[in-house]
Amino acid sequence: MNNLKIGVLFLAVFFISSCTKTELETIPGNQAPPDTTIESNVYDDYVNKTYILVLGREPSLLEFQKAVDSLKEHGLDVASRYRFLNTVFSLSDYKWRQVEKWRIQLLGSVDSSDVINQMAIFDFFLNDSTYITVWPALQLEKDRLDTLYNSTYDYVANTISIRQLQSHMLNNYFYDQINMGGDNFVLSSFQHFLDRNPTLSELYGELV
Predict the structure, then answer these.
(1) Chain segment 41-67, per-residue pLDDT in tens
(2) Based on the domain organization, do 109 and 187 belong to the same domain?
(3) C-alpha span between 181 and 125 (Å, rounded)
(4) CB atoms within 10 A of CB 95
(5) pTM value?
(6) What is the DSSP code string of 101-133?
(7) Rounded-to-integer distance, Cα 190 and Cα 68, Å
(8) What is the residue-level pLDDT of the chain in tens, covering all 208 positions?
(9) Which CA distances in Å does 16 have to 20, 24, 157, 168?
(10) Do residues 80 and 70 make contact, with C-beta atoms less than 8 angstroms apart?
(11) Which domain covers residue 114, as residue numbers?
């Protein structure tokens, strides 16, 4: 057999063998080793930024070290990040930050002392028979403020949901004063929660 035939035969065998399908075998329980190439500042920044964005503060030394140690131990995998975030969102700080956020957005500068003072004013009128004809309306306003005041603590204690907290912040004397009239009430509600104005059908449908 001459050299040309040998060469052709070799190429044919090489081509056939290179086209042979290779079966991949999956080994059960095979876990990739931890990625030791992640630099330390990546863990530090992740923990610090999470606390600042979610809670508006930096972690304490104990919170920081515990979180970083746990994330490093598991190579910053999805499960370890989920556990870390769940811990942060479970802190009462997060609940109070939500209360403050929605209080500012919906009620402006009104705080708990303003609510207490206004309830005292309603109490004064409720004990003055001169205003007996409007006692039902005054009692309603006082009750709504009492619900508003307690709702912040109920939310932090997980007794009510964030939606219930928001509804109480909409349904009270101060919100009515800020957004006088039915049109303004509906308009403000849409802008705060949907970031848009209501359509005409939504506006007038809600007012029916």
Answers:
(1) 899 999 999 999 999 999 999 999 999
(2) yes
(3) 24
(4) 19
(5) 0.70
(6) HHHHHHHTT--HHHHHHHHHHHHHHHT-GGGGG
(7) 41
(8) 555 555 545 555 444 555 555 566 666 766 655 555 678 889 999 999 999 999 999 999 999 999 999 999 998 999 999 999 999 999 989 999 999 999 999 999 899 999 999 999 999 999 999 999 999 999 999 999 999 999 999 999 999 999 999 999 999 999 999 998 778 989 999 998 999 999 988 888 755 5
(9) 7, 19, 71, 75
(10) yes
(11) 93-207
Name which of 112, 81, 88 is nearest 174 in CA terms: 112
Tell me the C-alpha distance between 49 and 56, whole Å.
9
Place of tokens 């009750």: 143
Domain count, the chain: 2
What is the helix (H) or strand (E) element at residue 44, kind and residue range? Answer: helix 40-55
The number of C-alpha atoms within 13 Å of 63 and in the hemisphere containing its C-beta is 16
SS3 58: coil
- 50 and 130 fall within a common domain: no
Indicate whether 127 and 176 sit together in one domain.
Answer: yes
CA distance 57 to 94: 10
The Cα-based distances of 185 to 13, 111, 170 in angstroms read 81, 20, 9
| Co-location of 145 and 186 in the same domain | yes
Instruction: State whether 111 and 187 are in the same domain.
Output: yes
Residue type, 26: T
Four-point Cα dihedral 126, 131, 135, 137, nearest 10 = -110
Question: Are the C-beta atoms of 38 and 76 separated by less than 8 Å?
Answer: yes
Place of tokens 């509906």: 186
